[in-house]
Amino acid sequence: MSTVRDVVSARPDHGTDTARLEAGAAQLDRATASARLGCVGPVRLGPGSGAGHGEVAQLGPEADPLQIGDSPGSRSFNRDSGSLAADRHAVAVVEMAAAAGLAHVPRDARDPGATTTFGVGQLIAAALDDGVDTVIVGCGDSGTCDGGAGALQALGARILDCDGHEIGRGGYELAHAEHLDLSGLHPRLLDATLVVAGNVHNVLCGPRGVARVFGPQKGAAPDQVERLSAALENWVRVLERDGIGSGDLRTGPVTGASGGLGAGLAAVGAQLRSRFDALLDSGLAGIDLDSRIMRADLVITAEGSIDFQTPHGKVPAEIARRAARHGVPVVALAGSLGEGAPAVHEVGIGAMASILTVPMPLSQAVAEAERLLIDAAERMMRMMLLGATVSDRARRSEDARYAVR
């Protein structure tokens, strides 16, 4: 009888405002074992759907806490402590979400035009001060929309208005930006490599610009979205004129990552890369995903919510694209299946299912996430084994007919 021998279970670390499945890959392994399957994995990948959180976790216990702060008077919900990790190869990973993630902003106080990436810049500066050669900034789960201006300010840049005065922090302030003074920029930015790892589908401006697409998710009302969009249009004009980077900062890939952090850092020479490729190609993930996929009969991935956004740079879609190169099927489990979820079939996810069996409050789903995931994975694997049995019977029946002839 045909069986699925080897399984790779790959999952993002977590999603924005969704259940964090801390032991997700291990739970998938338990489910496949229960269904009497072999498992090549687990493979744990970060960042997740938004992906900011998770990169530092790849480096394990070597990550060190770092105090970050902001100037009095600016309305910032930056976390008062961020995470910075460096490996033996002088590569540092900075988590955007640790310093300025949406999860740290109280729901009733969310306003992406008032928050800042200043703390992210402080983490980058700390990495440069430690003498690392490469800094990778993981984008995702951000609560900001300041075009990376705060990060540049923390790195020594001055953003001036038409009267030569420094503007304040936050996305709304970018409407007053007239000149970017880089004379005081951190000196190590000139000899270190700065990589922004983000979603290639996120752009700074235009109809699909970051303010319009993600502003409402971060708490912006319609009038605030338009205000931010106009401010970012002005900001990119200044960046492209006064920055030292190159490329299309307005609509280029990754420019809109984490509220425009990509564009701001690209203006001082940062490389903008797919977060998925940056993590794997840097070696920080500690795995050769392609070789694992090639050895597998099936890939299982998981996501907090699968919807119309999933095909556009989310980790499950990127895993599916890699698996498609090797002809390996992919199935996905999700906390919820949202609007446009069937679009994932176009990127190589052959089947998907929600882990929920009955309607329940989010708090209950989070509390029971481990059990729900294990049960859903086992149900899915038993269905696949049944399908393999049916296929095997059909093949043997067809062979028998040919033998009679």
From TrEMBL:
Keywords: Kinase, Transferase. It comes from the Bacteria. InterPro entries: Glyc_kinase_flavodox-like_fold, Glycerate_kinase, Glycerate_kinase_RE-like, Glycerate_kinase_sf. It holds the Pfam family Gly_kinase. GO terms for biological process: organic acid phosphorylation. Belongs to the glycerate kinase type-1 family. This is Glycerate kinase. It comes from Nocardia donostiensis. The lineage of its organism: Bacteria, Bacillati, Actinomycetota, Actinomycetes, Mycobacteriales.
